[in-house]
Amino acid sequence: MKRYIASDLKDMNRRTVYNLIASVREISRAEISRRTGISSPTVIKIIDHFISLGIVTMEGEGVSKIGRKPQIIRFNEDAAFSVGIEFDSRYLYIGIANLQGNIVTIKRFANKPNILFMLKKHLVKCINSVINQSGIDRSRILGIGIGIPGSVDPQSKIITLAPSYGVTDRLDVSKVVDNLEKDLDIPVIIERDVYAAAIGEFMHRKSQDDMDLIFIFMGSGVGAGIILDGRLRRGGAHMAGEIGYISFDISKKIDPSSLGWLESKISKAIADSGGDTQKTAAVIADNLAIAIAAVSISLDIEQVILGGPTAELLGEGLLKAVNRRLPALCLRETKVSASSCEHPAISGLALMVTEGKINELLEGTE
User: Fold this and answer.
1) Which of the listed residues 6, 40, 281, 294 has the most CB atoms within 10 Å of its CB?
2) pLDDT of residue 277
3) Is 0.70 topped by the overall pTM?
4) Do both 66 and 91 map to the same domain?
């Protein structure tokens, strides 16, 4: 068993205090001590340390009916930032978000539907442009999160499934990511875009820690990010949420190099619609509602979010059409709603970077 040392306790206390302040935004030292159980002298040291880092500021006296008035501490969400990047078949979106995942600047660039082109040829110049125009000092950038539109292992940096973007076999991009880090002098992570979108949506809705959520992204393909008991579900092969390959046709054989059954149905509905969005929404809703019901019943989840370019194009018509069909297909009330966050993947990627780097941010001598 690992020996428990003083530095572990210090790190844990800092993280506990940070998480509390970030969640409530304003609080007094006394209230921090009361809620966390950490001694007042330790809380004072931690807050003084956070002030020196710019993570919190003192906002003056609060209100108290008796005794001394508490000194209010406010969380400075702009103490540090992270970059989130997502792309589709036409555009590359680069945003900078603060410690709360709130996007402070975003820019769109023309792009090709090819992952290697984006990573090798296009990205460095675009990222530098966004950071330079933001006026944010690079020393305040914790890292960069790149959303991959396909199945990817964030640790090995191997992409296994992204047929719409030129990946039909295992693609190791670890050296490419290493080169990006060297060129930018900023840490870089890669993550599946729909997983990041689920995190971004979950946090933007201020969901409870044990809540469940499915985020369905509809773009050139269809995928889902699944959060169970407040935790992202990846699966053993990092393929959890590949609902585009759900099939209700026994004659349909899965081919990882092409669109899945559900994706094919949606693609055909769009192609055959002649621009009639109402007709397209009705056809897509028939198949999408069945897939949503299957996942909802299997996992006992009632909160389903639709996002992505196709969902945005079809708008309220698609939501209404799906919701009309779900009561007959689900065991419990399940309702689909639109994303509440304009760029949930960028926000989620930034939050993932922050989560991985926050302990480094909180380091220092008290």
Assistant:
1) 281
2) 86
3) yes
4) no
Count of domains observed in the chain: 3
* Euclidean distance between CA atoms 225 and 295, whole angstroms: 12
Q: Give residue-wise pLDDT tens across range 280-335.
A: 999 999 999 999 999 999 999 989 999 999 999 899 999 999 999 999 999 999 99
Whether 1 is covered by a domain: the verdict is no
- Beta carbons of 225 and 215 less than 8 angstroms apart: yes
Residue 277's alpha-carbon distances to 195, 314, 354, in angstroms, are 28, 6, 39
Tell me how crowded residue 101 is: count the other CB atoms within 10 A of its CB. Answer: 24
Residues 349, 196 contacting (CB under 8 angstroms) = yes
Please compute, for residue 7, the number of CA atoms within 13 A of its CA located in the half-sphere on the CB side.
Answer: 6
Structure tokens at 243: 């609902």
Q: How far apart are CA 237 and CA 160, in angstroms?
A: 9
Contact present, 55 and 98 (Cβ < 8 Å): no
Closest-CA residue to 344 (of 167, 157, 235, 216): 216
Cα–Cα distance for residue pair 243/169, rounded to 1 Å:
19
> What is the rounded distance in angstroms from the CA atom of residue 334 to the CA atom of residue 295?
11
309, amino acid identity: P
Residue ranges in the chain modelled with pLDDT below 50? 1, 365-366
Helices (H), 205-308: 261-272, 277-299
The greatest distance separating any two alpha carbons of the chain, rounded to the nearest whole angstrom, comes to 76
Is 241 within a domain? yes
Tell whether 156 and 186 lie within a shared domain: yes
Dist. CA 165–CA 220, nearest whole Å: 9
pLDDT given at position 61: 67
Q: Which two tokens stand for residue 345?
A: 């993947």
276 shares a domain with 222: yes
**Distance between CA atoms of 321 and 327, rounded to whole angstroms?**
12
| Same domain? 68 vs 91 | no
Element (H, E) at 101: none
Angle between helices 6-24 and 29-36 (to 10 degrees): 120
